[in-house]
Structures are given as structure tokens and as C-alpha cells.
Specification:
Layout: H1 3-21, E1 25-31, H2 35-50, E2 54-60, H3 66-78, E3 84-87, H4 97-103, H5 115-122, H6 131-142, E4 151-155, H7 162-171, E5 175-179, H8 186-190, E6 195-198, E7 216-219, E8 223-225, E9 228-230, E10 243-244, H9 251-270
Parallel strand pairs: 1-2, 1-3, 4-5, 4-6, 6-7, 7-10
Antiparallel strand pairs: 8-9
Helix pairs in contact: 1-9, 2-9, 6-7, 6-9
The structure holds NADP nicotinamide-adenine-dinucleotide phosphate.
NADP nicotinamide-adenine-dinucleotide phosphate binds near residues 156 and 179.
């Protein structure tokens, strides 16, 4: 499944939407100097610039206090030039992540991690939903993968990927099983899957014997090793799977494209072109 090609097409559509809406502002806040986070932020800013979104790159020192970060977020919440806002995770240990996520204006919360947005998703009335899960759904749609009644296994239960993609699949009428580090006999569960989504962060956690012939496999993992970035699934799965997302070039580019789409959505909420619950 060519995520790069689909993401490129979507970015073209977004550029048109941005021209139609006028100035759109997206702010990212990075605390500390984690090299992987730095790379993601750079990719996001490059992509935003290419579609005409004004991206503001806010960097705070690794010793920033929780109060200082909250103050920064408050300023961005109040800033009329900023439509979308994300805080790059993980945050340093001295900062309470849930408190920070709760402080983001839900309308601007392009990562969909504010409890209001996450709750809306759980209730089946999605508002802002994280870019990675939305990108996965777009790939499945693009490749006409039938979801209704499909046996779907999601490996990983993080708030950023596993849980939200499970909810989106459930609302699309798939039958969803969620696995995690305590799952017994993971292979026995994954072999049941028509659609298998793997978001663990460990190279080779799923091998060719763990996949049913012809299954659709979405590899979310991005693991940095000596050979560059590799996914979570053993590449030999390509011989068994019907469809497979490559790493790189699968979910990664879709995440970036969908973040831009979420920024456009945030601009629509703020301009009242789209109704936001309770607003
Ligand atoms: P995370 O927060 O670390 O969550 C990992 C999940 O995997 C947890 O639920 C954990 O279970 C589960 N797990 C760990 N070891 C396991 C095992 N041996 N068997 C089954 N489940 C296991 O990770 P994340 O943020 O979701 O990210 C996962 C991967 O996706 C990472 O490689 C990350 O870099 C990548 N990622 C890629 C994109 C993209 O755009 N392509 C976006 C986001 C993340 P417990 O809950 O029991 O601990």
C-alpha cells in the first residue's frame, strides 16, 4: 500500500483547501531535544509550508517546568493566528502529560488527545482524531479493504495509535480485538485477522507465521536501527499478506498529510464553518 503516493495526492487537495480558507496557523511545541521528536517536527513543518499553512515551531528547554509549558499553551490557545496546536510527546519526566493535554483548547487540539476529543471518538461522534489513526483508515479506504464484519486485530493500545484506530475500526463495523504486552499467544490472535494493525515499536514483533494468507497488514512501527528505519513486522510478511504498508513510505507519510488535514479542520471549527460540540 503506497502511503507516499496517497499522502501526496491528499496534500495537493489540502493546498487547495488552504487557498480557499485563507491564513491557517499551526503551532508545534517541543520540550527538550530528543532527536526523533526533532525529526518529526521538521517533517511536519516542511509539509505545512508546502501546502501554505503557517507553522510556528516553538522549542522549549528540557528543564522547562510544567507551569512554564502551561503558560505557553495558554498563550497559543488565546492567539487568533493559531488554528491548530500540538505538543510533541513524550514530555520530560517533570511534566504531567495528561494535565498538559487537558490544557489545550479542544478546538485547536489537532492530535485529538484532549479528553473531550478522545471522548467524542469513543462515543462515535469524532471531532479531532489523531493523524496516524485517520491516516490508517484513509489507506484502508483507498485500497477498498472491506471493513464491515472484518476480523481486525490491533497490536498496541497506546492513546496515539492503538486505541483510537481500534475505535475508528469499531465504528466502521469491523470486529476488533486489541492486543498488548500481556496478550497470551499473540500469534494465535493475529493469525485470525483479515486486517492486522501493528503499533508496538519493536522490530519483528510479528512474523510471517503470525499472519493469515491474504491478510491486510498495516505496519505502524518506526524503529531506528543500523539499517535506517524499520517497521514492527518482519518484511518477509510480504510473501503472505495480500496488502502491506512499507516502512518507510506507508503510514508515516499519511500521518503527516492527515495532520495538515486536521489543521484545516481546526481552522473550520474556529471560523464556525464546522460545528464543534458545546461551542
Ligand atoms: P507505545 O505508546 O510504546 O505503545 C506500544 C504498545 O505496544 C503498548 O500498548 C504495549 O503494550 C504494546 N506492546 C509492547 N510490547 C509488545 C509485545 N511484545 N506484544 C504485544 N504488544 C506489545 O507506542 P506507540 O506510540 O503506539 O508507537 C508504536 C510504534 O509506532 C512505534 O514504533 C512508533 O514510533 C510508531 N509510530 C509511528 C507513527 C507513524 O506515523 N508511522 C506514528 C506514531 C507511532 P502495553 O500497553 O501492555 O505496554
Amino acid at each position: 500500500m503506497d502511503g507516499k503516493a496517497l499522502a501526496e495526492r491528499i496534500r495537493g487537495e489540502i493546498a487547495e483547501e488552504v487557498r480557499g480558507l485563507g491564513e491557517i496557523g499551526l503551532a508545534t511545541v517541543l520540550v527538550g531535544d530528543d532527536p526523533a521528536s526533532d525529526t518529526y517536527i521538521r517533517l511536519k513543518h516542511k509539509a505545512a509550508g508546502e501546502v501554505g499553512i503557517n507553522a510556528r515551531d516553538i522549542r522549549l528547554a528540557s528543564h522547562t517546568t510544567e507551569e512554564e509549558l502551561l503558560e505557553q499553551i495558554e498563550q497559543l490557545n488565546a492567539d487568533d493566528a493559531i488554528d491548530g496546536l500540538l505538543v510533541q510527546l513524550p514530555l520530560p519526566d517533570q511534566i504531567d502529560e495528561p494535565r498538559v493535554l487537558r490544557s489545550i483548547d479542544p478546538k485547536k487540539d489537532v492530535d485529538g488527545l484532549h479528553p473531550l476529543n478522545f471522548g467524542q471518538l469513543a462515543l462515535g461522534r469524532p471531532t479531532h482524531v489523531g493523524a496516524t489513526p485517520v491516516g490508517i483508515m484513509a489507506l484502508l479506504e483507498e485500497y477498498d479493504v472491506p471493513l464491515e464484519g472484518a476480523r481486525t486485530v490491533v497490536v498496541g493500545r497506546s492513546d496515539i495509535v492503538g486505541k483510537p484506530v481500534s475505535l475508528l475500526l469499531l465504528h466502521a463495523n469491523a470486529t476488533v480485538t486489541i492486543c498488548h504486552s500481556r496478550t497470551r499467544d499473540l500469534g494465535a490472535v493475529t493469525r485470525e485477522a483479515d486486517i492486522l494493525v501493528v503499533a508496538v515499536g519493536k522490530a519483528g514483533v510479528v512474523g510471517p507465521d503470525d499472519v493469515r494468507e491474504g491478510a491486510t497488514v498495516i505496519d505502524v512501527g518506526m524503529n531506528r536501527g543500523d539499517d535506517g528505519v524499520v517497521g514492527d513486522v518482519d518484511p518477509a510478511i510480504a510473501d503472505v499478506a495480500g496488502l502491506l504498508t512499507p516502512v518507510p513510505g506507508g503510514v508515516g507519510p499519511m500521518t503527516i498529510a492527515m495532520l495538515l488535514r486536521n489543521a484545516v479542520r481546526a481552522a473550520r471549527y474556529r471560523r464556525r464553518l464546522l460545528a464543534f460540540p458545546g461551542a
